[in-house]
Amino acid sequence: MSDEEHQFESKADAGASKTYPQQAGTIRKNGHIVIKGRPCKVVEVSTSKTGKHGHAKCHFVAIDIFNGKKLEDIVPSSHNCDVPHVNRTDYQLIDISEDGFVSLLTENGNTKDDLRLPTDESLLSQCRTYVFHRIQIKDGFEQGKDLVVSVMSAMGEEQICALKDIGPKN
């Protein structure tokens, strides 16, 4: 046996994957899929019949969950696709800084200060699923309302995607 001490550097994640494989033929509308390296929500799926030379194919039309861009992909239905781990978490809004960063209260009482208010106006108009306005957040906060924001996270990205007004502050 050796008398040497071994030191290992710990990494931020425990090796958890940002995606998981799923057979293309089992992915449905309103599910999630990775297209061109981007996490997307599927808005349309069509499947072609098996041809003379191969597999039935799935045609996916999807919207990037962070920038609202429409992406398409065609995959043999028996092959695996990457599906992102998508999480949605609610936080209470504590403060908004001058440069647009928000301070959010986590469930365990700590603060999360690394998110900005959405700024891209074209994104706000494109994302029909997560329609809300930066102005609504700022106005509600300035009026002293208790606000809860929903944060969508997938593949190492996070973005505020919804707003709930839970009433006036006490």
CATH architectural type of the largest domain: Beta Barrel
Q: What is the ordering of alpha helices and beta strands?
A: EEEEEEEEEHHEE
- Order of strands, main sheet, comes to 9-8-7-10-11
Query: What is the CA-based Rg, rounded?
Result: 21 Å
Distance between the termini: 64 Å
Family: Belongs to the eIF-5A family.
Region (Disordered): 1-23
Keywords: Hypusine, Protein biosynthesis
Biased composition (Basic and acidic residues): 1-12
Describe what this molecule looks like in 3D.
- 9% of the residues lie in helices and 49% in strands.
- The protein has 170 residues and is mainly β.
- The protein folds into two domains: 19-84, SH3 type barrels; 86-168, Nucleic acid-binding proteins (OB fold (Dihydrolipoamide Acetyltransferase, E2P), Beta Barrel), CATH 2.40.50.
- The protein is elongated and about 65 Å long.
- Residues 1-12 have a biased composition (Basic and acidic residues).
- Residues 85-164 form the Translation initiation factor 5A C-terminal domain.
- This is Eukaryotic translation initiation factor 5A.
